């Protein structure tokens, strides 16, 4: 047998190589149509220079191109017809179909020569994620409150279709589940009738989201247990860096679902997940705390293990600033009175965070006194104010002013040259 195999081994080897080469040539001929075989080509239509934040809402047709000439080296799969969308605005427009020059080939006819395309503006919206749970868990079990991360996603698409999105949906089945499910699922987009939303070409994805999928946690708990959502809070220890202070402490999520007997739940209204160390902290920081490190009262439990995020927002300490020469307005002055002298400009001291104080101007502060019910004479009044958001008034002086009747003659100054004036009596 061995001798039979080795007999004429050289010829057999050459025959095998030739057979492989012939097969490769036949295969390449089937995949690479050349221009010398078919003078009429069917090309895919593509777009060039599509304006930013725009999308084609028309299904692009195929284009038939009649040619003359000979060039066997050109692969039809590498040729495209195209339309140039430079400078296009949203709406319906006509575009000329073009084909780039092909060496040694004359383009006789392009059909269609002009196509009508609809352009739409691409927009974005933040939308909540809805989870639809289906199926029945194992005997004696029930699904708890579903947790979805993130709970909102950024949805992007043409305005005409984005307006139809009524629900961003994710589906999960708990059929037969005996323990908590933690899965990742893609997002689906549904209109108000619960139907999928497609563009003009169903094979092209027109509505997208970031992220494209979300993580789902469905607690599977005993049927006899009740549940309750309680708020979360956290505290800090330590002293921030010099000149810095804690602006806010936020726990994400802001609440957690706990399970237990009705009596135990009734006495449990909030959960402190602990303290985070901010000693020397100067910038905003996020701390991660696992739920297995946060104890619950006896008889209560989490539906599933999760992680709490404590976001400590840091900023510069609050500061004071004095603004000078601010004008004051007199409001509700009785119609028969006038000011004897203009109100003086004053200085005030305000308090705010440095980033607010740095851009604060005198024109942003309104000051006034109220003369309602006042009579002629001297008055000392409180100054009222209106300040921009985030600014606190620290000190403002009271104002003393004098009102007089409109018909009162102006006071005449003493005239040293008038011998009849008091104080200018002749000396005897």
From TrEMBL:
InterPro entries: c-di-AMP_regulator, YbbR. Residues 403-428 are annotated as: Disordered. Pfam families: YbbR (PF07949). Gene3D superfamilies: 2.170.120.30, YbbR-like domain. Residues 415-428 have a biased composition (Low complexity). This is YbbR-like domain-containing protein.
């Amino acid at each position: 047998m061995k001798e039979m195999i080795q007999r004429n081994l050289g010829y057999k080897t050459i025959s095998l190589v030739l057979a492989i080469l012939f097969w490769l040539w036949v295969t390449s001929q089937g995949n690479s149509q050349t221009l010398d075989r078919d003078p009429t080509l069917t090309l895919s239509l593509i777009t060039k220079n599509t304006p930013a934040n725009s999308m084609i809402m028309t299904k692009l047709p195929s284009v038939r191109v009649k040619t003359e000439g000979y060039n066997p080296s050109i692969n039809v799969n590498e040729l495209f017809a195209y339309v140039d969308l430079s400078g296009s605005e949203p709406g319906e427009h006509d575009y000329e179909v073009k084909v780039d020059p092909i060496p040694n080939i004359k383009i006789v006819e392009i059909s269609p020569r002009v196509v009508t395309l609809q352009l739409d503006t691409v927009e974005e919206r933040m939308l909540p994620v809805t989870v639809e749970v289906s199926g029945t868990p194992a005997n004696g079990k029930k699904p708890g409150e579903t947790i979805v991360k993130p709970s909102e996603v950024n949805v992007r698409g043409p305005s005409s279709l984005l307006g139809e999105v009524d629900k961003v949906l994710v589906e999960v089945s708990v059929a037969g589940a005996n323990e908590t499910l933690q899965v990742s699922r893609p997002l689906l987009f549904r209109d108000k009738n619960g139907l999928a939303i497609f563009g003009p070409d169903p094979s092209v994805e027109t509505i997208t989201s970031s992220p494209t999928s979300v993580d789902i946690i469905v607690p599977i708990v005993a049927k006899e247990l009740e549940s309750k959502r309680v708020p979360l809070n956290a505290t800090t220890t330590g002293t921030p860096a010099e000149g810095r202070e804690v602006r806010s402490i936020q726990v994400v999520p802001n609440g957690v679902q706990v399970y237990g007997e009705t009596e135990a739940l009734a006495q449990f209204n909030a959960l402190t997940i602990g303290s985070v160390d901010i000693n020397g902290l100067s910038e905003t920081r996020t701390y991660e705390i696992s739920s297995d490190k946060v104890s619950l009262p006896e008889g209560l439990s989490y539906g599933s293990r999760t992680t709490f995020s404590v976001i400590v927002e840091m900023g510069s300490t609050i500061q004071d600033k004095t603004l000078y020469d601010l004008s004051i307005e007199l409001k509700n002055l009785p119609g028969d009175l006038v000011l004897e002298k203009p109100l003086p400009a004053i200085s005030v001291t305000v308090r705010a965070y440095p980033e607010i104080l740095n851009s604060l101007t005198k024109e942003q502060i309104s000051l006034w006194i109220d003369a309602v019910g006042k009579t002629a004479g001297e008055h000392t009044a409180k100054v009222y104010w209106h300040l921009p958001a985030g600014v606190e008034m620290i000190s403002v002086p009271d104002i003393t002013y004098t009102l007089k009747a409109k018909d009162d003659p102006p006071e005449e100054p003493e005239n040293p040259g008038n011998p009849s004036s008091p104080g200018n009596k002749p000396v005897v």
